[in-house]
Amino acid sequence: MKIRDIVNREIVNLTNCEQEPIHIPGSIQPHGFLLGLKSGTFIIDYCSENVSDYISKSHADLLGKGFQEIFGNDAQQALENYISKDRMLSSLLLKVELEKQLFVCTVHLSDGIYILEAEPSSEEHKKANEVYDHTTQFLTYLNGSNTMKDLCQLVAEGTREVTGYDRVMIYRFDEHYNGEVFAESCREDLEPFLGLHYPHTDIPAQARELYLKNLLRLITDIDYSPVPIYTLDDQEGKNLDLSLSILRSTSPIHVKYLQNMGVGATLTISLIHKNKLWGLIACHHYSKKNLSPDIRLAAQLQGHFITSQIDLRQSSEEYEVSRKVNLAYDRLSMFELSVDGEEKFKELVSHPEILNICNATGVALIIDEEVYSHGHVPSEKDILFLTDFLAEKSNNTSFHTNKLLDILPDHPELSKQTPGVIFHSLDIEGINCIIWFRPETKTEVNWAGDPSKSIIKDKNGLSPRNSFELWKEVVNYSSKNWLQPELDTAAAYSYSLQRQISLILVAKEEEKYRKLSELLSETNAELENINWISSHDLQEPLRKIQLISSMLINEEELSPSVGKMMNKLNLSAERMQALLSDLLKFNKVKYNTEPFVEVDVSALIQELKEEFQENYDFDIQFEIGELPKLTGERFMLRQLFSNIIRNSIKYRSLDKSPMIKISSPESIDWEDQEAEMEYHYLIFEDNGIGFDQKYSKSVFNIFTRLHGNSEYTGSGMGLALCKKIMQHHKGNIKAESQEGVGTKIFLAFPKIA
């Protein structure tokens, strides 16, 4: 049987420590031994080298053997009962006799391996009743503390009393995982660390990740020699994840760091809040020190007390802030804007509660690029610049920061003047918005050594810093942090303000459209009056012009040139009279109030066919299909069909007889039609000269003519009148044409039940 150790021998230094696989060191600390048992069979697959220090057998004797074979049936039964009742990693530790010696064990499952860590049971530690007495006393301390800081201080004192460590610190992380000693209890002869800050590099990311998984970390002797773990060499790359192990060996970089601090032993308890590492209970001793598992659990209970109280204590501290800003919000909500906005906007930003709702020192309201500001604010030019920048950055939503320099590094003066901002857009374009401001608050941070020198270079290469002397840093370009109640209240008021401004803008638009509507009505009335005069009152003078010109033409003594001019005058008067007649027809459609009746389209088309064939001295062919009955005004429909047929005759090809086809298909592919509406369709098709399809829409515009007066007579209103009649009937009209081929006119009439 071949065995090998699984020690991770990769060289670890400060250039690669961020990637160090600290969960698989392949070794443990020597204050206990480790067994790795295959789940199901309980075959010993892993064993620490120091097992022979605690029992009479070596790791080579144990590997590949069954747990029961080595330790007997009673030990096997105790282990199986413990696992079956799911007591692993609970406060109920496994106490079992192994070779007539009592051991206290922790057990957990890792990748199909039960990891059993055994430590000798000792009677030298505090009795259980003493531990629980301390815990009971601590509960009374909880009831007597109001703030988070008071609570943490009591926890530090209580933990030190339970564990006996020289120093106990409550270590709290900021958003970047820089740490602060938030509370501390230590021996009187030791230099206090309270208030000191430590850079995030002191606890790298993978270490923080392990603190989330394993809530308790113990080092009994900083100068220990790691004990290798052995396994059967039966597969390549075999390893053991010790993330949850209490005996797991520590990173050499961390050991060096603690040695530089002069620490001899440590206990670390994780403080988890909302699935995130909030902080640590860090216990330091300046000589070797071990704790029994019972005492460790009692100490871990202190951490549970803190994490259970974080929300409550933070809520208590924020309650007063929340109460005040909500009171300001309630008062401010009573202020209403009006359509005459400018004065009201000025009044709003001067309202004292608009600053109190988020404890700001200045506010700017930007409406249609007009700036209304109050308090400690940047210049108007800078405000407009910030408006554009923050609108783009937030995608026209909201944004806040207490250090504007982080996002505007090229504008230090602006960032220094008002580094704290809350921005809320008041429309989707970001044109209207509100911004609250806070001034710079200089902060002095006490670091345990220069954070920029957390890594030092000496003759041995790179190593953790060994200087922890007080180093002070003055933090510029930042304001006091915005608290969550302040952000919530600012957001709530912004939404309320957005609604008010939207209503004002809508009211302004309505007023503008009302005035435009009145102006349009007046203009239309004037145009109608002009139309009436031009199309009615001008008829009489035109008739006189025609009469006089006709009489003069008949005079014998007129010279040929004068007669020619009189003929032109007479023709011009006729065209003018036709135009005025068409204008009268066009206007009549608008004011027609005749009721709709059922109209037999076949009969109406037959009348028109006979009329046109009588009035023209050339052959006109008609091909008429089965046509529907429509609901509409008969006179207008007659005018509609007459205009379409007349156009087909007027624009006929001179080399062939005009052919006019009239049909009524069941359906037509028409994009503009309403899907839920049913229609009657008519198609008028001719074989005339046609026109370019690009004019298919413009031919329905009033006075549109595609051919000169010399070629074809007319006012250019025929198809415009057709479109007007179709609109009157809630229908649609369109044209398709090809030069030299002919034209199709499509009509769609809604079916009226």
TrEMBL record:
The keyword Transmembrane is assigned to this record: no
This enzyme's EC code(s): 2.7.13.3
Record's keyword terms, sorted: Chromophore, Kinase, Phosphoprotein, Photoreceptor protein, Receptor, Sensory transduction, Transferase
CDD domains hit by this protein: HisKA (cd00082)
Phytochrome chromophore attachment site domain boundaries: 147-304
Reactions mediated catalytically: ATP + protein L-histidine = ADP + protein N-phospho-L-histidine
Enzyme class, spelled out: transferase
InterPro entries attached to this UniProt entry: GAF, GAF-like_dom_sf, HATPase_C_sf, HATPase_dom, His_kinase_dom, HisK_dim/P_dom, HisK_dim/P_sf, PAS-like_dom_sf
A Pfam short name: HATPase_c
Domain Histidine kinase span(s) in chain numbering: 533-753
Family stated for the protein in its record: In the N-terminal section; belongs to the phytochrome family.
Protein's name in the database: histidine kinase
Organism this protein belongs to: Algoriphagus pacificus
